Amino acid sequence: MLIYFNNSVPPVASQQFISHPGFIDSAFDLPVFMLALSHFPVRFLPELLGLNMAIELSGLGKSYMQLVDDWNYWEIDPTIASIHISIDNYASGHTFLAKKAVKLYLDQIQQNTADNEEVDKHWQRICCGYASLRYVGTRFKLALPMRYLGAKYHAQYKKDSGN
Predict the structure, then answer these.
(1) How many CB atoms lie within 10 A of CB 54?
(2) What's the rounded Cα separation, in Å, for the pair 36 and 50?
(3) What is the CB-side half-sphere exposure of residue 103 using CA atoms within 13 A?
(4) pLDDT reported for residue 126
(5) Residues 6 or more apart from 133 whose CB is under 8 A from it?
(6) Cβ atoms of residues 59 and 137 within 8 Å
(7) Which residue has the higher pLDDT, 125 or 159?
(8) Mapped to the 3 state alphabet, what secondary structure does the chain carry?
(9) How far is CA 109 from CA 42, 103, 114, 124, in A?
(10) Do the Cβ atoms of 48 and 129 come closer than 8 Å?
(11) Is 49 left (phi over 0), alpha (psi -120 to 50) or beta?
(12) CA torsion angle for 120, 126, 131, 133 (degrees, to 10)?
């Protein structure tokens, strides 16, 4: 995407990267959330499993197909979204593996506790992790098209005004 938009960024380990004005702050919401959860993988395993399931399922169905259509409309290369549609498939792809991980986890809780209420508690935590994706990604979903349209219209204005 950086190449497509003719953008470049400073080296990742540099101060210039940290303060680069081209970044959309909300683009870091999900990575920081995932990083925070990953610091406590045992404590937050159910939430991580749910979040992973949500991420993999988001690559299926209408949302990514709509994204491909939207990007085509705005003349943005949709290759990355198209790839996600193919690798996140429910039958054998990432979504299948995410579903299998949830099932194995819940089966293990059932086997270790023989307590359906305990399994339900873990299922609710998985559901919370699943639901978290919607909230964590909202700001970026709104900011990205606004940034793109602003840049596009700014470039068109400069072109039209001869600047």
Answers:
(1) 20
(2) 15
(3) 6
(4) 98
(5) 30, 51, 54, 55, 58
(6) no
(7) 125
(8) CCCCCCCCCCCCCCHHHHCCCCCCHHHHHHHHHHHHHHCCCCCCHHHHHHHHHHHHHCCCCHHHHHHHHHHHHCCCCCHHHHHHHHHCCCCCCHHHHHHHHHHHHHHHHHHHHCCHHHHHHHHHHHHHHHHHHHHHCHHHHHHHHHHHHHHHHHHHHHHHHCC
(9) 13, 10, 8, 13
(10) yes
(11) alpha
(12) 180
Whole-number Cα distances in Å, 93 to 59, 100, 110, 160: 11, 11, 26, 47
Task: Supply 158's token pair.
Answer: 């400069």
Structure tokens at 28: 């870091």
Q: What is the pTM of this model?
A: 0.75
**Tokens encoding 7:** 């953008």
Give the confidence band of 131 by pLDDT, cuts at 50, 70, 90: very high
Task: Find tokens 């349209």 and name the residue.
Answer: 149
Residue with the two structure tokens 């939430």: 47
Q: Which residue has the tokens 């960024």?
A: 9
